[in-house]
Amino acid sequence: MVQETAQHPETGDTPVAQLTTAQARAELAWLAEQIAAANRAYHRDDAPEISDADYDALKQRNAAIEAHFPSLKRADSPSDVVGAEVAEGFGKVRHAVRMLSLGNAFADEDVHEFDTRIRKYLGLAADTALRYTAEPKIDGLSLSLRYENGVLMQAATRGDGETGENVTANARTIADIPTEISDAPAVLEVRGEVYMSHDDFAALNARQAESGGKKFANPRNAAAGSLRQLDAEITKSRPLRFFAYAWGELSAPLGDTQSDAIAQLASFGFVTNPLTRTCDSPDELLQHYKTIEAQRATLGYDIDGVVYKVDDLALQKRLGFRSTTPRWAIAHKFPAELAWTRLEAIDIQVGRTGALSPVARLQPVTVGGVVVSNATLHNEDYIAGRDGNGAPIREGRDIRVGDWVQVYRAGDVIPKISDVDLARRPEDAVPYVMPKTCPECGSDAIREEGDAVRRCTGGIICPAQAVEKLKHFVSRAAFDIEGLGAKQVEQFYADGWITTPADIFTLRARYGTGVQQLKNREGWGEKSASNLFDAIDEKREIPLARVIFSLGIRHVGENSAALLANHYTSWDAFEQAMTTAEIGAGAAWEDLIGIDGVGTVMATSLVTTMQQEAERASIDRLIAELSVQDAEARATDSPVAGKTVVFTGTLERMTRAEAKARAESLGAKVSGSVSAKTDILVAGPGAGSKAKKAADLGVETMDEDAWLALIGDA
Question: Of the listed 73, 92, 120, 137, which one is catalytic?
Answer without folding.
Answer: 137
